[in-house]
Every structure is written in C-alpha cells, then in structure tokens.
Amino acid sequence: MSFKDALTDVLRYRNAYALALSASMGSILFGWDTGLMGGILTLNSFQQYFGIDKLSASAQANFNGNIVSVMQAGCMYVIKN
Asked: Model pTM?
C-alpha cells in the first residue's frame, strides 16, 4: 500500500476517525477530572476552608461522597442533554 492509498483511506473514513478522537478525548478528560477531584478533596486547605477537618470520619466520608456523586450526576446530566 502506497502513501497515496493510505491517505485516501484516511480521508474516506475521516468521520470515523473524528468520532474515535472525540470519544477518546472525552474519556481522557473525564478521567482527569475525576482524579483531580480526589486530589482536591484531600488538600488540607480545602478541608479547612469548608470545615471538613472538623467533622467526624464518617461525616467526612459522607461529605466527600456527596461531592463526588454530585459531580458524577452533573456529568450524566450533560451527556443526557
């Protein structure tokens, strides 16, 4: 297969490549956002600002779980609409 044939195939299936690229970028950004959220929740400055450090261990777990679940619900809302 020559370079010209390969380029013709890429141009022929450009919509499939664009769809695959956008889906993979969406997955990468979703994973990055989820990982970032976990890091922010453990920051001492974040916990002090929102008073999480003064809560009991189970209350901290509930609070952090609520924050993450609201983020997940927001993602599902955006996908649905």
From this structure: 0.61
